[in-house]
Amino acid sequence: MRNRISMSLLVIAVLSTSTYAGGKGVVPAIIPVEPIPTVQPTPVYVGVGLIWGKYAGQCGDGGDCPYEDVTYGALVRAGYDFNQYFGIEARLLGTFWEADALGGQELQHFGLFAKPMYPVSEDFNLYALLGYGWTQTTTGGNKNLKELDESGFSAGVGLEYDLSSKEDDKIEDGYYDREFDGQADQEKGWGLFVDYQRLLIQSDVPDLDVVSA
Questions:
Q1: Which of 82, 110, 119, 127 has the most crowded Cβ, counting Cβ within 10 A?
Q2: Sequential DSSP letters for 41-63
Q3: DSSP secondary structure letter of residue 113
Q4: Cα–Cα distance for residue pair 166/122, rounded to 1 Å
């Protein structure tokens, strides 16, 4: 009887040992899931656009000869966003509408601006341009033409729209939460912009206005 009990205990011990040694009862190792790497968006951006420009003024000191001129051209802009609320931007624009009987004087402008911003939503960003501008053109309409080569304070306001795709999944599914919580998504991709700019804000120069998109 004792021999049978001893053999039974031995068999149980051997089976128990072989079970763990053979792997049937081994709990598989949990492979840690690597977190999705955080994308560090570049703060630098470059854009191009078309412009519609207009200047208006008076021919003489008496104001007896008002004039207005409209022209078209292109714009290149480049900037750096320090954060979602502030950046800097440089822009260069020029028009290719040559002077003729209907006006359309050529216009060149360079500006360097501080760019305060406010994220209206995850996709829309409202911004202002405040800084220095240099402008060269010919004013005075078709009569009393006068070369303008001036620099000074320049300002504008605009709106940007982000076209880059957004994932709408939750964090527990392995994706980022894209719900807008007052913090703008700084990962910029393709986008659209439209803005208005007064090229020079001086009392002694014509009103020089540009709409860019």
A1: 127
A2: --SEEEEEEEEEEEEEEESSTT-
A3: E
A4: 10
Residue burial 115-139, b: 16+ Cβ < 10 Å; e: rest:
bebebeebbebebebebebbbebbb
d(CA 163, CA 172): 26
Give the helix/strand (H/E) hosting 5.
Answer: helix 2-22
Q: Would you give per-residue pLDDT tens digits along the chain (213 residues)?
A: 555 555 555 555 555 555 544 555 566 667 766 666 555 567 899 999 999 988 776 665 555 666 677 888 999 999 999 999 999 999 999 887 665 555 566 788 999 999 999 999 988 999 999 999 998 877 655 556 667 788 899 999 999 998 876 554 344 444 444 444 444 455 567 899 999 999 988 877 778 899 999
The residue behind tokens 């303008």 is 148
C-alpha span between 171 and 177 (Å, rounded): 5
Q: How many residues does the chain have?
A: 213
Amino acid present at 211: V
What is the C-alpha separation between 120 and 159, in angstroms, rounded? 10
C-alpha dihedral sign at 198, 201, 203, 204: negative
Strand partners, 24: none
**Contact partners, residue 150, CB within 8 Å, separation at least 6:** 134, 135, 200, 202, 205
